[in-house]
Amino acid sequence: MTIYNLGSINADHVYSVPHLPGPGETLAADSLNIGLGGKGTNQSVAAARAGSHVVHIGAVGADGAWARERIAGYGVNVDHVATVQGPTGHAIINVDAGGENAIVLLKGANFAFDPALVEAALAHAGVGDVLLLQNETAHQAEAARIARSKGVRVVYSAAPFSVEAVKAVLPHVDLLAMNEIEAAQLSEALGTTPEALEVPETLITQGAKGAVWRAASGERHVVASFSVTPKDTTAAGDTFAGYFAAACEQGLAVPEAMRLAAGAAALKVTRAGAADAIPTRAEVEAFIAAQE
User: Fold this and answer.
1) What domains, with CATH codes, occur in the chain?
2) Is the pLDDT reported for residue 165 higher than 80?
3) Is 107 known to sit in a ligand binding site?
4) Is 33 marked as a binding-site residue?
5) Is 150 annotated as a binding residue?
């Protein structure tokens, strides 16, 4: 079985700052690190590090060969990562002393590839496979429609939040994932709670408060977060989503998959960076065992 991921690829410019800047404020950064990121990349790396076979679908610019190579280095298949005109997507990430962040994105190549790339990548997908999606690339709804028509499980992270994007993708989604802020935005925009939507499953991550999974049948599971001292919360939600999707694809029951994902996210936030800082399955299992 395979996890396909139509996902963004970004160069992350991470600035360590004493606090997140306010409107009109000029703030001196303490340091700068440039690394691999993008919600899609983060989820692909997380799923691969959790032990699943992952195929990434996306694009970089001519300046992004390094990103493609690094993704492949984490065990992700990049045969369907195209090189297009224009810049690779990038993010400007401010991280404060408490590990909280504020992010500005440039779409770049993530919105500059042909839909035929998606069709080709999913040509051999079928029942038992998974498609991950986030709101950082073009052709999300079309990819979800193609995948669903083949019996592929569609997991959509509604981030960055856009009600239009959610409405377009939702008819083809099996699992809708979001954090508590995105869930509140969705509730306000649609006038209903995520749990009331006609989607088989919802997953809401709540940072230090853990995560909640609900099924349309009424089944519900909650996982508490692990107590850690955060260094950088960037990619924590993506790490959770990628690990959770991989664990479920590998046959773990939802409670066990959530605990593994919570451990991965907790260990991630103790490290600076995004995709490059996502822990391996062995590291996560050792971390969870130590907590017990």
Assistant:
1) 3-291 (3.40.1190.20)
2) yes
3) no
4) no
5) no
- In order of 83, 190, 207, 232, 269, the CA distances from 100 in angstroms are 33, 28, 11, 7, 10
What end-to-end distance do the CA atoms of the chain give, in Å? 31
3-state secondary structure of 284: helix
Name the more confident of 255 and 273: 255
Alpha-carbon distances, residue 136 vs 67, 117, 194, 251 (angstroms): 16, 16, 20, 28
Cβ contact 177:186 at 8 Å: no
Amino acid 232: pLDDT:
86
pLDDT digits 0-9 by tens, 212-252: 999 999 999 999 999 999 988 889 999 999 999 999 999 99
| pLDDT band at 193; cut points 50, 70, 90 | confident
- Alpha-carbon distances, residue 184 vs 42, 59, 189 (angstroms): 24, 31, 9
- The C-alpha angle 56, 61, 64, rounded to 5 degrees, equals 70
**Measured at the alpha carbon of residue 193, what is the angle toward residues 191 and 198, in degrees to the nearest 5?**
100
Give 106's strand partners.
90
The DSSP letter of residue 50 is T
Record the pTM: 0.93
Residue 83 marked in a binding site = no
Of 201, 157, 199, nearest to 182 (Cα)? Answer: 157
Around Cβ 23, how many Cβ atoms within 10 Å?
Answer: 4
Q: Is 280 helix (H, G, I), strand (E, B) or coil?
A: coil
DSSP character string of 122-187: TTT--TT-EEEEETTSS-HHHHHHHHHHTT-EEEEE--S--HHHHHHHGGG-SEEEEEHHHHHHHH
Is residue 98 annotated as involved in ligand binding? no
Q: Is 209 annotated as a binding residue?
A: yes
- Predicted pLDDT at 151: 98
* Catalytic center residues: 238
15, two tokens: 């600035």
